[in-house]
Design a protein that fits this description.
alpha/beta, single chain, four-stranded antiparallel sheet, 10 strands, six-stranded mixed sheet
């Protein structure tokens, strides 16, 4: 299907009586890396998980407003959340490989959705591992348990697993926070390549990382989208005092 922009309109979220996202409105461009930044506990990950409805798994969470992926209404009436998560992949902070082989980890999604036969499945696994930058490291080890991979390799395996179902957008929730500097550089390199084909959104506490890889930036503060724009504009000439204070702190 190809990459699609993500349009968020009047998005609000409550945990019980506590409102944690307040009237968020923004369009996230296709084929770009958009970074969501802000202090801890400000709503960055909550916003990210609203995009593919992982927030549905949180007891007491209630969402109003609209999230669209192209013409697809993520919160449309009768929409199957499984279809949402096929279109919008998520790479989490800590890699969680499935307790099976490297090959079967990547093949899990295509098998679940009944995509193609054995030959196509092998091609999909190889292609996904190549895009994730892992094929050359594991091509002779595909039957080994995924748990034997290093942490950085496991994170790229989880990325390959998400790519195998051919999503339109990819979400990253602090994907390098547990990785060493070398693995972080490798992962960032893969993300920069992925934006040629996908809409990429990354939550990060690392301002240097956002400066390295982001085309656009969203600054979230106390549940509100305080500022957004190109990375150059936000990092060099922030319009809002809260943004300038956060960037000046170097958190």
């Amino acid at each position: 299907m190809g990459a699609r922009p993500i349009a968020i309109e009047q998005l609000n979220l409550w945990y019980g009586a506590l409102q944690t996202l307040k009237d968020v409105r923004v369009e996230i461009p296709a084929r770009r890396v958009t970074a969501i930044i802000g202090p801890s506990g400000c709503g960055k990950t909550t916003l990210l998980r609203c995009i593919n409805r992982m927030i549905d798994l949180v007891p007491g969470a209630r969402v109003t407003g609209s999230v669209r992926l192209g013409d697809f209404q993520v919160y449309g009436r009768g929409v199957d959340v499984t279809a949402v998560r096929k279109r919008v992949g998520l790479v989490m902070q800590k890699p969680i490989p499935l307790p099976m082989s490297i090959f079967d980890n990547v093949a899990f999604g295509p098998r679940l959705y009944g995509t193609g036969g054995r030959k196509q499945l092998r091609e999909t696994v190889e292609a996904s591992l190549r895009v994730a930058g892992l094929w050359d490291e594991v091509k002779d080890r595909l039957k080994e348990p995924a748990g034997r991979l290093s942490l950085g390799q496991q994170q790229r395996l989880c990325l390959a697993r998400g790519l195998a179902v051919e999503p339109e957008a990819l979400l990253f929730d602090e994907p390098t926070s547990a990785l060493d500097p070398i693995s972080t550089v490798k992962f960032e390199h893969e993300v920069l390549k992925l934006k040629e084909r996908y809409t990429c959104v990354i939550v990060t506490h690392n301002l240097q990382q956002a400066m390295r890889i982001a085309d656009h930036v969203l600054f979230v503060y106390l549940g509100e989208l305080v500022e957004h724009g190109t990375a150059h504009q936000v990092f060099t000439s922030p319009r809002e005092a809260a943004t300038a204070s956060y960037l000046g702190s170097g958190i």
